[in-house]
């Protein structure tokens, strides 16, 4: 029986050196599917590592010409109209487990922004509130404070060991508010009000140390703020009680002015030689490192800003209005979401050649949110107005790894700050949580 | 005479022929008829068998010698040694015949024939069956009978493999042929092959004579390197002629003596005179006149060649049946396919004279003589060349291509939309009596203002420092502050509106055509955002802002001479620019036009039912009047440059005007299948669009060049669909995003759609 089935020569290669096998061609029957191939590679690995030590059974995914193998080899060959007589070059990577759908966090209105930190999730909604959730889906707190829909949220400081966390919310009311949350007492206080933008604050991002944050706004400017809360002496290290008092008195909220304003044509606040900057709304901001941020704008450009010198250092021209951008420190590249159905990959370091390094096309509506995996250099999430959240592997630009169809309406924001939590927020008043735990699923 | 042997076989054969003639003639048979010869031979053989009972071959040898002897006697006069000579020839002949007898071509068999007579009987024995097709013996393994009645066995015929082996191994295979008469295989000699080749070329069979030798043109005009003849040139060919000299001498003498006068040179005057007297009468019409008829001769059309129908003995299918004949007779002579009845005669002799011959000739002459012949000028034009070269839509990006967002919320048809100048918000007015404000990027309805009647027009103040929307509802125009965008701007706008005091009391002197009503701070109206109400006498159809955001104009269809009113926000003043009615005003548009020297010209475009008038508001006069050629104009938009106007009409047309070019449409676009409801230009990209009742929006690339020599380039690039047709209405309004190449459309189905 086995002799009858045609065989095909395959050659395995991988970029994960710990799983490397000799690159001799193997003859495998064409009927073989992913599981069988995975077993085969495991077998080879065990043979080669018998002396050195047991690796354990690992599930692999197989990439043939930038596409993942889903069915049998035969079907793939038929689909691609390939002959079975050449040696197939198959790249294999450790299999990414399917994200597990978990809670759905119900809101009262559209959810426009979401971010996770540790065991908690912060979301911003069109009902002018921000909400705090535990990752198990428990609503912890609803925070009214803005006078207009909340457009963006970000954690500033979150440490499991300390009871007080801080976060920031930006809104249509042209302000960004910094809040302190005491987990022990479950109380929230607004400690800073950052006003200065002359239009809605559309994006906010906090640097790695949590002492600086950047906001981008529809008024075309990018503003840098200090998050350091230096309240008057005694209550800085103290708990929230004085704040609460002050808040009751109605004067506790400190007004904060921006450290730096970048862009904006007309205003010459501290700009003597700064170029004009964005000509349209800034839709997303990301830190590249401690000194550089990248902004995405509706004027079809991505701009890199050096915060030390307070000037624009590079410009990447796109063809569509950018709606979101995400930067991965692991791969040092940017993925962008624009007002069309493509996700594009940019490399901010290179200036020659094609600006777009790769484009990922599978969505059918505008892509509005992208987010890199914090731990995997090849993975990122994209959410779109076509209600689908997609998990992508940059090595397979032709088709996404997984489609997640839990939203009933358009997705407005995605987040993957916590490695285990893939979050998406949408017009259906929900934040959907997907659990992504590669460690548990990789080994059986 | 022994030297015969030195000659070639063929030559000998030829000579033999000449020798043999008399004998052949004396013989009973003709040369061509081979069978007769054979029969005669066989007769002889029969006789031989009677006399001798020897071996057939031996006897034939004897016979041969006898015969040779006979023939030798006849030629003895010429050749005393004929015997020996003939002997040798006969030997040669055997070979000849062996090889040549079995050629397939008739010519070859004829060649055989010639020798058949003088050949030995041994040959003839091979075929005893006579002149019958050899196929008759196909089934048997013999071929006739010999003298003793024994079967003459056919020579062995190899099968396919033998054939193939022969083909591969036998070097003579190519010239081996099968004897038609005996079935034997014979190899053609070299001479035979040559002979056959020669005959195939149509040459003379005899080798010695060349029938058509190649012509060498010795005495051609070409100069040759070597002279053809050896004769030296004559002396006279290079000395002057004596006789000419004498003749010339005579003439000179005659002139000297005055007997002869040389022709005199004509003076210029005489030449003039000559020209006046004689001139070419047809010099200027030479080409038009008779000459042309010769030059451009058109040959007479040829008569069709006679076919089977015309035959005196046509094939039966050409003869008409009874019904056909009846039909033919009933038909008018002009309608008949053939003008005679085909008839069958058994022979040519019975064919009568053709009675209509004279008629036909005459008609033919008339045809040739009276029917004007003219050369048809054929235009060989590739139809594709006639299509103007338009760039491909792909090269004209960006333009909106796909539906990106749907703004849902209105409960009835959305009549009008307008994006705010920054492109972040969108305002829409609907028949359900609400004005809604949307966030463009997310399709979120942020604010709803109830106005209790259907909204006919909304317009966002184009001045980015103001945050105001003009809304026309019934007879009222409301100025609404939506409270969106910069808070400071919102409060500034409110402050600006509140700061107005009726300082200029003089304005009350004049009767304003409208009432300005400011909302009180405490009224519910104010909270919803309505700041001002301007009550008009008639229903307001349209409201449009001037670019500066201070002036705005309203249109009342039934306003007669007050159909168009221009209002000023800061002074709360209204005036009617026209003293008399211009007709049914459809819509108006302001345009701020920058001319050289920092000057600006404010133009007001007024579209009536059929015309568009352009007014200069500063000079207060009409600049141009455009003829739309449309039945009923529905909408109009002005290119940001100001020199181009697009007009949409209810009769499905869009007319593009280039004001510099003409007052008539530069181009009329008939792409829509329904009434055009709205046309719009993009303020940044070279795009314009038209929305129609057929549920589609057509986006066109409309590039206006700053070079005056270049006409605008108009290319339709995209048809956008998505709106459902409700109550026979499709898309009611469309507007481009102020910054992006996107278009919004308002549909009768209650949705607003964004295409990107």
UniProtKB/TrEMBL annotation, chain A:
| A cellular-component GO term for this protein | nucleolus
Annotated Pfam families = NLE, WD40
The residues bearing each WD repeat, given as ranges, are: 194-226, 275-315, 315-356, 360-402
SUPFAM superfamilies per UniProt: WD40 repeat-like
Q: Which keywords label this protein?
A: Nucleus, Repeat, Ribosome biogenesis, rRNA processing, WD repeat
Q: Which PROSITE patterns match?
A: WD_REPEATS_1, WD_REPEATS_2, WD_REPEATS_REGION
Q: Name one GO biological process term.
A: maturation of LSU-rRNA from tricistronic rRNA transcript (SSU-rRNA, 5.8S rRNA, LSU-rRNA)
Localization annotation: Nucleus, Nucleolus; Nucleus, Nucleoplasm
Looking at the record's lineage, which domain of life comes first? Eukaryota
User: The NLE domain covers which part of the protein?
Assistant: 8-77
The record's InterPro entries line, in alphabetical order, gives:
NLE, WD40/YVTN_repeat-like_dom_sf, WD40_PAC1, WD40_repeat_CS, WD40_repeat_dom_sf, WD40_rpt, WDR12/Ytm1
The keyword Repeat is annotated on this UniProt entry: yes
Q: In Gene Ontology terms, what is one molecular function of this protein?
A: ribonucleoprotein complex binding
Q: Does the keyword Repeat apply?
A: yes
Renumbered to this chain, region (Disordered) spans 231-277
Q: Briefly, what is this protein's role?
A: Required for maturation of ribosomal RNAs and formation of the large ribosomal subunit.
Similarity field:
Belongs to the WD repeat WDR12/YTM1 family.
Instruction: Read off the HAMAP family from this record.
Output: WDR12
Protein known as:
Ribosome biogenesis protein WDR12 homolog
Q: Which organism is it from?
A: Littorina saxatilis
TrEMBL record, chain B:
Q: Which chain regions cross the lipid bilayer?
A: none
Compositionally biased spans, kind Polar residues: 99-108
Where is the major localization of this protein?
A: nucleus
Is Repeat there in the keyword field?
Answer: yes
Q: Compositionally biased, Acidic residues: which spans?
A: 44-69, 77-97, 115-124
Q: Which GO terms describe its biological process?
A: maturation of 5.8S rRNA from tricistronic rRNA transcript (SSU-rRNA, 5.8S rRNA, LSU-rRNA); maturation of LSU-rRNA from tricistronic rRNA transcript (SSU-rRNA, 5.8S rRNA, LSU-rRNA)
Entry GO MF terms: ribonucleoprotein complex binding
- Write down the HAMAP family for this protein, in alphabetical order: BOP1 (MF_03027)
Protein name according to UniProt: Ribosome biogenesis protein BOP1 homolog
Q: Which organism is it from?
A: Littorina saxatilis
Its taxonomic placement starts with: Eukaryota, Metazoa, Spiralia, Lophotrochozoa, Mollusca
